[in-house]
Structure formats: structure tokens, C-alpha cells
Amino acid sequence: MTYAKTAAFTANQQQLARVAKALAHPARVAIIQLLASKQTCISGDIAAELPLSRTTVSQHLQELKTLDLIRGEIDGLTVCYCLNTDLLLQVQQQFTAFFIEATSGAACGPADACAC
Amino acid sequence: MTYAKTAAFTANQQQLARVAKALAHPARVAIIQLLASKQTCISGDIAAELPLSRTTVSQHLQELKTLDLIRGEIDGLTVCYCLNTDLLLQVQQQFTAFFIEATSGAACGPADACAC
DNA sequence: AAAGTATGTCGCAAATATACGACATACAAT
DNA sequence: ATTGTATGTCGTATATTTGCGACATACTTT
Questions:
Q1: pLDDT for the residue A25
Q2: What is the pLDDT of residue B43?
Q3: Is residue A43 part of a domain?
Q4: N or C: which terminus of chain B carries fewer CB neighbours within 10 A?
Q5: Domain extent at residue A26
Q6: pTM score > 0.70 for this model?
Q7: Residue B70 domain flag
Q8: CATH number for position A62
Q9: The HTH arsR-type domain covers which part of the protein (chains A, B) (predicted)?
Q10: Please, which contacts does B9-12 make with residues 24 or more away whose CB atoms are closer than 8 Å?
């Protein structure tokens, strides 16, 4: 296996990377924004709003669903997707903590060895 | 081109996805955390601390550098990397805004059509 | 029952990402 | 000048992602 040495990293790093990967495509960002903006949970309308084929959108939806960031509820013929707000709040905190950690450090102050 | 229809998405969505992609690998998350924790900007020591070959780490560094999330300063034989704190702060705000947008919405309240 | 509609899954093609050895470059030290 | 060290780049193999057409499934409607 010349791939995926993820096992050697922290659980935190892996989790952060996993969620980041879910957001690493504009279509998936757009889907989440769509679900957040629409008051009702839309279904195949999502595909209609995106510049991608229905198949591709369905796959992006499945990816988000696998991570449990969104959930689908079958309602007769259509499927109703909506955000998992609880998980999103957790993820938000995780990202916030990461960014605070990354930005609070003096990170090479003027007295340090290098001057970048 | 059966790939990268990114042009059809918002600049905001693309930017968010671009940064998310940078964080979509545990090694890159680890690199940022390392640079944040070490008071001095380390260089090849980064490679030594990660469970990856020097070559691979170098590539991850280049990726982060391309996005300007980190910067390198040549100091004789070694190269000094450090975080671009300013950009990281911007990115942090962008992510925060996104998560607030995603989590503040009622997102399928009890009165809505579907019950997820 | 038959036809229509909304979704999901499969299979394929092309693009990217990941990982690393081998080589090139650049500076330091002798 | 020659040798050694620290980094970066290139080439390559493999894994994964992306995108979509074609098909399968499930439910609704007539």
C-alpha cells in the first residue's frame, strides 16, 4: 500500500482532515449552503440548482451523508435532505480550536532565528 | 474536460474548498500544528517528525506554500518555514462565517415538511 | 396492471492526489 | 577544489476523486 498512511497520525488530525476533505469541493460547500438557506429540506432540487449532473450530485450527497453531515429522509417519491446541525456545531468547534491553535502562536516573532 | 467544473461555483465556495483541500490530509494538518507549536521555524525537522518520507513532506510543504498558508525563508543550508498568520486569520473568519451560516439556520424545524 | 417519476447504484474514463526513490542544486565545511 | 549536507524537482506507480450515462429500484398515479 503506497497510500494512506493516515494511521500514523493523531485521531484529531485524521478527523479534521476527514471533514476538511468533505468541504474540499465547491459542490459540497454549495450543497451545505443550499440546505442551510432553504427552510424546507429539498431533495432532487439540489441537483437542479447545481451545474452538475444528477448522478454526480447524488454522489456528493452520499459523501456528505457518509460523514453524517447531512441526513436524508424518504418522503414518498422524493428524498428530503437536511443538515445535521449538531454534528456541524461539533465540527465548527474543532475547526475553531485548530485555527486558534494555529494563529495564536507567536509563529516566528521578530526575535526568532528566521525572519519570515 | 470531464473534471473540475469549479468555474461554475461562487468565488467564495471555490476559495473555501481550496483551503479545505489543503487541510484535507492529516500530514498537512500536522505540519501546521507543528509550525504553530514550535517557537522557532523548523525546516527539515518537519520531515523527521512525520511518518512520511522527506520527499513527500516536501510536496505537502509546497502545497501549503502555494496557497500562501506557510512561507519559507532560506537560511544558508536550511529552510525556515513559518505560518502566514494573517492569511490564517482570514481563513478562520471565512470558515467561521460558513459554519455560522450552516448551523444558525433552523434547518428543518418540527413544523417543516420532513422530519429529519 | 401499466406508465411515469424521483433516486440510487454500477461501470467506465479521465483527472488528481499520494508516496517515494533517484537525481539536481546550492550552500557549508574542510 | 572537493566533500558533505539540506532541499527541491522529476519520474513513476498506485490509489482516489470526479463526472456522467445506463440501468435498477421504489413509489405514485392513472
A1: 97
A2: 79
A3: yes
A4: N
A5: 6-102
A6: yes
A7: yes
A8: 1.10.10.10
A9: 8-103
A10: B9/A26, B9/A27, B9/A29, B9/A30, B9/A51, B10/A26, B10/A30, B12/B94
